[in-house]
Q: What sequence folds into this?
């Protein structure tokens, strides 16, 4: 069957001979920002859709899984997180989830492209409902430079909510960046970074985690979760602990759609084919 | 981007405004069997692909997750499974996994369409590598009638590896069928049925499980797992226990690519939005 390109947006994952398409009723916005092409569509089955440079960033329907899994597991793994840094995350979905945790004193969100946050405030108001929380701080600047210049030990949790490792974003996957995060983290600090698909990008996950281990984190842990509109429908995040155990986490009572205490533990179960590479 | 229909197969999930495409280099086979249209493609990224009536049944690359999750959890949840019935499953992938368990005395695979098994033997030889095991029995007949006529208590585990609940296959989702399975199961018997996508088909999962409970099973449990080439990339199976607890399972040492003891437990963690319907 052939899809009508006037009604369907298609993202091709060329390395894997695979493509995902979403049907839309209207293109709501398109611009070339200083950094990338930004598009917003109204889809028929997934609510609104945001693209950056033709890649699906998020949809109304399924972003809850990603945003919850990028925030609650790492926050609950820290004994008392107060100061959080988000690198990327311009759609503000992670920010909203972080601010559900009562103990948080401030969250600093650092994204290069102010227009992503502008578009999210306009087209994804749910994600931005905590943007006016007085604990939220926004900087629109280079995340790598920001972390390099951050005061040592000034964050309890760093969340790297970045796009794929191409172009500018590739620096967010480097050993230098992981080392800068290590220095910016407090004694029991933890960083988490999205780490692509277990099915499509196993070697990327392995190399990311090996780089994290290389700069001195004492334990690395993977989280696995479904993510319908990302390549392969299956996604991962990698947590790097300065001084803590992935198996220990605080049980919290916050409102979520995907995450809960059972899911926290379950997400850490490692499929056999990912173990075999040990 | 528009995909060239000469090089890409596309399955549209119309209810959800979503489509998955796989690039192929060659169509290897096409026939109208007595029951359905059967096609085999050579893809560029997923090995071989089998379609029935235009729906993706399996690919070489990702079928391991589905087949392992449809077999090992249910078998390990039974104290000593010896007699197994597979309804559907003509590709023989479940059969192969079941036969990895040493205690199995016989597995009876009952699929309507002999041509599916023919095609699997020809194009997916890996899946069929245990077809000549002397414990394997094949019948090509109607699964519902077969179960209704089965001797009471004659199976320890029944695996319902069926297509979506449309046409002929809809009967495999009925209360009558679940009752027939209940009768055919031994005292500590367990049935498992594939139950579609948590993201796309939540109400189907709920109604299946409610029908299972309605015919007398004493406990019902869900399994969740990624499945790249099925709608939404996220899938489920439902287990119904005559007399057992989903939380108890035997640890086994068998060769797998996805399943292991941690994954068994993890797959039972219920996402918050699926709990809210309790």
A:
């Amino acid at each position: 069957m052939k899809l009508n390109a006037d009604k369907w947006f298609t993202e091709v994952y060329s390395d894997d001979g695979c493509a995902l398409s979403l049907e839309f009723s209207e293109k709501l916005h398109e611009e070339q920002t200083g950094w990338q092409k930004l598009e917003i569509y109204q889809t028929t089955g997934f609510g609104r859709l945001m693209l950056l440079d033709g890649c699906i960033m998020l949809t109304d329907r399924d972003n809850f899984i990603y945003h919850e899994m990028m925030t609650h597991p790492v926050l609950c793994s820290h004994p008392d997180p107060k100061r959080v840094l988000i690198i990327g995350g311009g759609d503000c979905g992670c920010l909203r989830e972080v601010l559900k945790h009562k103990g948080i004193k401030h969250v600093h969100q650092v994204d290069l492209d102010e227009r992503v946050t502008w578009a999210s405030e306009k087209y994804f108001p749910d994600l931005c409902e905590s943007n006016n929380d007085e604990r939220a701080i926004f900087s629109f600047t280079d995340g790598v430079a920001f972390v390099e210049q951050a005061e040592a030990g000034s964050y309890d949790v760093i969340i790297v909510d970045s796009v794929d490792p191409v172009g500018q974003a590739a620096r967010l996957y480097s050993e230098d960046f992981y080392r800068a995060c290590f220095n910016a983290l407090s004694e029991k600090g933890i960083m988490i970074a999205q780490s692509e698909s277990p099915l499509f990008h196993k070697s990327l996950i392995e190399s990311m985690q090996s780089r994290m281990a290389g700069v001195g984190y004492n334990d690395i842990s993977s989280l696995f979760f479904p993510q319908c509109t990302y390549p392969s429908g299956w996604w991962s995040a990698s947590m790097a602990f300065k001084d803590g155990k992935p198996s220990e986490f605080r049980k919290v009572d916050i409102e979520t759609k995907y995450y809960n205490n059972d899911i926290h533990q379950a997400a850490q179960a490692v499929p056999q084919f990912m173990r075999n590479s040990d």
